[in-house]
Every structure is written in structure tokens, then in C-alpha cells.
Fold each of these.
Amino acid sequence: MRNVEGPGTATGVIVGGPIVVRKRFESGLLLVINAGGSALALWWLALNEPGPIELSYFAVSACVTLVGMGVGLHRHFSHRSFECGPVLRFALGAAGMMACQGSIVKWVANHRRHHTHVDAPGDPHSPTLDGHGQPLSFLRGMVHAHLGWLFDDTISDFEVYARDLLDDPLVMFFHRTRWVWFCASFFVLPGLFGYLLGGVEHAIGTILIGGILRTFLVLNAIASLASIGHTYGARRFELAHDHSRNNALLALLTFGEGWHNNHHRHPRAAHVGLAWYEVDVNGALIHALARMGLVWNVVPHLARRRRRDFEPALSS
Ligand SMILES: [Zn+2]
Ligand SMILES: [Zn+2]
């Protein structure tokens, strides 16, 4: 295991070694389940009409995992946009784990590294540079930023980017048990739901549609923030070396995360929709929870505060 600092690499980037082999194996296994199961789901859809059992599970589990990613893994665990009690924190962590995008500590380390080196050498998933900071053509860059980076020979050093979470018992519990959550999300929960409400045939359909296809679609929506969200859309804020965009379609598909340029301007903000038409479902949910007293210390966007002494981005 090497932590290399020099041309093409950056602080907190581990190049090669057994940890990278494990990263590629886990990424590969998750992608095989996602893509293989989704192909089976499309085949199932060609032969069967999905009913209320499959569709209701798909809709509810998609909403739960999108909130788990946006409110949980992104705004709470990565950026500390708000604080909450242990029960809600567990629920947000569990919902985020159900997206099957790695453990919380791994996702947070990658994401904080993205903010630290955005679109510069060290960024894990820039559409313009590879994992060693070398320029990429448009097509190769889009593939790398979307999912290709999960298979390169670099990985984020948890000690550098997620030191606080390595001492967090809840986060490390989710890390140790991550495959339990992945299996529950892909197979067990949709299978039980379908079986109890409709029998074996519906259990298979619910696993394929509500378990695997839903996970794959959510994965692609979130991955699009790195590929499309750093390539297509409007820029309210011109940020140095930062190609982040505000993309309404991505915002719709990710419950608000697509206002990515607003987010990059102030990563700690709990609400990133700044104009009336920038609907931020995750931000609205955080404010609703705050009104109920379930979350507190909610960080407002600096553009809403009109003062200069805002908190710096939590990127390390
Ligand atoms: Zn970004
Ligand atoms: Zn972020």
C-alpha cells in the first residue's frame, strides 16, 4: 500500500496494493449484480406486467435510497450540514447503505476527496482527468467520471479523508456489515415483500424490479452528478478549476442533488436550491425535520446569509 504524493497523484490517494484489489473486486461484484440483475429485470418486464406489488416497492425503495444518499451519506455524513439524534442517524445510515454504493466511510472519503481536488489531480471522478491527473478525451472522461473510476488503481485514504468516521461506532458498524445491507436491499427485503403479499412469482418480480433495477437506476442517477453534473448545465457561480453545473433534470432525479454548482459553492449547506424553481426535495426534508425538532444546527447556504464569515467546506 503506497500513499504517493508527486506528479499525477495527490495527498490521500493510495495507488495500487491489496486495498485496490479489494476495491476492484467489491466494485465488480456490485456492478455484476446491478447490471446482470437489471438485464434479467428487463427480460422479466418483457414477459410480465408489473403490478402494484412490484411498482409500489420500486417507488418506495427508490425514495428511501435517494433520501439515504442525499440527506444521509451526502449532506449529513460527508458535509455535516446538520446534526440529529442516534435513531434518525441510524435510519439515514441504513437508508444510504441500501443504495449499495459501498460503505458510508468509503463513500464519504471518496466524496470529500472530490471536493478537495475538484476537477484537478486527486479528484477521484473528474470527467476531464483520470485517477493520476492525466487529461482524458471527452468520451473516456465521461466513462471514467460515471463508473469507470471505481475500477482504476487508486483509492481514497480513509485516514486522510474520513478520520472522524473511523472513530464513529455507528459508521464502522455499517462498514463491517455492509454486505448484509446490500443483500437485504437487493434480495431479502423485496423478496419478503413480494412473497408475503403475492407469493413466489411476485417475490421474483419484486427482487428484479424493486431490488436490483431500482438500485441500478439510483446508482446511475448519483453517478451522473460526477459525469453529467460536471459537464452539462448552468453555472451560477464561476469557481476556479471546478466544472460543476446546475442541472434541472439531475436535480429532479436525485431529489435536489443536481443543483451541483450551488452545492460546490458552499458544500456544507443543507439546502442547495437557491431560486424558487430550484426544487430541492432533500433540503426541504431537512428543514421539515428541523421544524419537528428532529435535526438541528442546520447550515444555511452562504448565498442566503449575505455575510462572508461562513463555515469552510468540510473536505477533510
Ligand atoms: Zn461535484
Ligand atoms: Zn458534496
Amino acid sequence: MRKILRTLSEKTGQYDRLLQLYFRWSLFLRRLETRILIPTLSSSAIIRKIYFSFFSDVFSSEMKMYILGRQHYLERSLFEQSNPSHLRRNIHRLEKGLMAENRRELFGADYLLETVHQFAYSVAELDRCTLNDWAFDVLQQYFQWSPNVPLVEQAKQIFTEVAYTKLLPEVFRGPYVKGPTDKELYSRFSILAKSRKSVRSFVPGSVPANDVLENAVRLAALAPSSCNRQPFRFVVLTQSGMVTDVARLAGGARSFAEGIPALAVVLGSTAVSPSPGDRHLMYIDGSLAAMSFMLALESQGCSSCPINWPDHKKADAALRKCLSIQAYERPVMLIAMGLARDNSMVACSVRKEVKELLEII
Ligand SMILES: Cc1cc2nc3c(=O)[nH]c(=O)nc-3n(C[C@H](O)[C@H](O)[C@H](O)COP(=O)(O)O)c2cc1C
């Protein structure tokens, strides 16, 4: 809009006047929206449906992501292919059943057969890996504890026929007793949490070493995720041209895009659950992992800055041209990384007070 105004003003010589008119017009439209459109939309589900079907496409990418994720999940679950998210969820549920204080004699019966089938597909497709080791140990323990009813017998038969050999036979991957928490942990975590700040000025070329990134991702993976499905991955860009191009796509990094040594694109996946209610898991789980990732970077002396990735069609299409992203994946955020420049400034960014953030009932 400003470009159009500038061109017009070059012809008329009245840039300020045109800008003022433009601001007034925008204000008028916003006020109209606030007083008329929004109250109308908030009053009726039918009007909302009509409006968002025919007059607004703000949710179109969300709808597309949801449907593509569901398609990918169901294709893999229903047509004899391995679906690691499906296996993870079911093994997680069995593990919870196994360690429940009032363990039921028979549990998980409604998803037991699909779980052993998924285990068989997973072994056929992925062979020896930590996911299959985990599934193997949990299923084995499940069969030890469960009664010999026909359904369990049938599942056990399928499980035995898989004849899986663990990748790491010496490591048991079932439920275990958690040790006590280190008493010094709060003060040490407090140092780390206070040390991390969003850094926007980096030493040129200070790309984090591979082991720093691997360590950070190892800890990021320890973040909790819904049913342990971990619907995220980190794509790290280290080539300066590409880093700048991608960082520029996110409006919030334009002012410092050129000085970013490396950039992580945190990608979330909608294909880890077929349920519409789970469509935001990629953002929740992806953000929890991103936080651990940034803290792990900080603990290794590498600074970072999270960068917003808004839902913009053009930026999304441009990013998909640069990177190989599955149709059901979408950036959760970008993270700029590198060594902080000596004496570089960071914002104070005063936090809300505890009483504003905490309500104990
Ligand atoms: C999801 C998310 C998106 C953010 N996007 C941007 C951004 O686009 N540009 C930017 O400079 N900072 C961005 N930030 C950094 C915040 O401005 C910063 O975390 C906040 O002001 C608190 O400051 P601190 O991180 O230095 O403690 C983002 C942070 C988060 C968590």
C-alpha cells in the first residue's frame, strides 16, 4: 500500500496528505469491523460458517494442513504400512497401563491387535531401531502381565512371529523407577533460564558446530509431547545466502536477517494424529521442544533468537521452494543461532509479575 501511495505522491507531490487519508480510511474500516462485523460473527455459528466459507480465507491453510495430515496418518495406519506415530501412541498407552497403580488385569484390548500389526510393519520397514526396541520391551512386558484370553493370545502370536532382535539388547526400554530430583537443580536451572536472551547481533560466520546442534536436538527431544509422538523436526540452514533469504521471509527478522550465522527451521507435522482436536499439537509440542533446544544451545555457549513464522501464503510457498518440506509439515518458528557479538545489547523485556501469571486455587 505504501508503495502505491509513494508512486501516487510522486505524481501529485502530496505524500503526507495521502498517507493521512490512508490512515484515516484504515481506522474507519477497523472501527466498522469492531463494532459491526465482529459482533455479528461472534453472535452466530451459521454466519461465521458463511463468512469463513465465502468471504475470508484466513483458515484455509489450517484446513489444508489438517486434511493432509489426516490423509497421511490414515493411509499409513489403514493400509498395512508402518505409521510410527500410531505405534508410538499405542505403545505409550500400554506403558501407562503397565505402570498404573491400580493396574487392570486386562487393558488395551481395543487397540492391541492394531498395535502388534503396527509393530510388525515397523520392524519390516525400519528394522532395528530404538522405537522398535521400546515397542518390543513394552509389548513383551504386556504379554507377561496379561491374562491368556483369546485376543491376547492372538496378538502374542503375531508379536512372536515378528522375531525381533533388539538394536541394544542391554538397554531395557519399559517403565522404570525415576530417581530423586537433584536438590541443586532449581538454582542451576535458574542460572540457565536467566542467561538465555534473544540475541540479534552475532559474530559473523559463527555457525554452531554439528555436535552443538546434535546435543541441542538430543535435549529438545526430551521435551514432553502428546503421546510421545514428537511431531517436529529441526532443519538447520548454515549457508549464509540461504539463511538470509529464509530469515527475510519472516517479517520479524528483516532488521537483522543479514547477520544471522545459522537458522533452524522448526517444522511441525500434522500427520501424527487423525483427530481434528489434535491439530494444534504440532505447535504445542514443537514449541516445547524449541524451548529446550534454545536452552541447550545457551548451555553450550551458543545464542539464539526465536523468530515468528506467521501464516502467510507467499512466505510459505517461498520457503517450500528453498527446503524439502512435506505437504503436511509447516514451520512452527525459526530460530537464529550463533555466537553473540561482544558487548551486543539485548532487550530488557520486562516480564509479567508472578501474581499476573499464577493463580493458585
Ligand atoms: C514464538 C516467538 C516468536 C518471536 N518472533 C520474533 C521475531 O519475529 N523477531 C524478533 O526479533 N524476536 C522474536 N521473538 C523474540 C521475542 O521478542 C523475545 O523472546 C521476547 O521479547 C522476550 O525477550 P528475551 O527472549 O530476550 O527474554 C519471538 C519469540 C517467540 C517465542
